[in-house]
Design a protein that fits this description.
three-stranded parallel beta sheet; 150 residues; P-loop_NTPase; binds guanosine-5'-triphosphate; binds magnesium ion; 35% helix
């Protein structure tokens, strides 16, 4: 299959971005997409979410992993945003694991995840790895995502 056929089948390239609060994910995505704009956000039903409603929830540090973020100038990439393995963040990482597992079972290529980016802040103030991260990375090269979190 040549790359244009693959592209046609995938539709949009779907990337899950995982990182701690303020790790700089949004900034990285803006750089990758070569824009300074904020992404447009759509819920899982494909409805656009009012930015003012969203602003209130993101200021409280909430991200809905099911939401799709798309930069207007780069509609071929769709991002999902999630917290990583933070202390006290059990339910967030459970949601992330459930999301990865359910997307790996999607029957259409278009709805599956095509890449996962894990952001680790490299400044000295932050600890390098959390216990949850060490566990996650020691498992995920050996086990298929669909089996990993069952
Ligand atoms: N020093 C430094 N600051 C950065 C870097 N990347 C982003 N920032 C700043 O860190 C802050 C958070 O960046 P965001 O890109 O919003 O981080 P985020 O992980 O998307 O944040 P949340 O979605 O709120 O968790 C902003 O004030 C950025 O300007 C970096 O590489 N170095
Ligand atoms: Mg962000």
């Amino acid at each position: 299959m040549d790359s244009s056929k693959i592209k046609e089948k995938i539709g949009r390239f779907r990337i899950l971005v995982i990182g701690r609060a303020n790790a700089g994910e949004t900034t990285i995505l803006q750089r990758v997409c070569n824009t300074r704009e904020n992404p447009e956000i759509y819920n899982s039903a494909g409805e656009k979410i009012d930015p003012t409603v969203l602003m209130a929830s993101t200021e409280r540090g909430e991200h809905d992993i099911e939401n799709e973020m798309v930069f207007r100038n780069n509609p071929g990439l769709v991002f999902h945003d999630s917290r990583g393995f933070e202390a006290g963040g059990e339910s967030e990482s459970d949601k992330m694991k459930a999301f990865i597992a359910s997307r790996s079972k999607e029957s259409t290529l278009k709805n599956q995840l095509h890449a996962i980016w894990y952001c680790i802040p490299m400044d000295e103030a932050s600890r390098s790895f959390t216990e949850g991260e060490i566990k996650f990375f020691s498992q995920c090269d050996r086990i298929q995502p669909s089996l990993m979190f069952d």
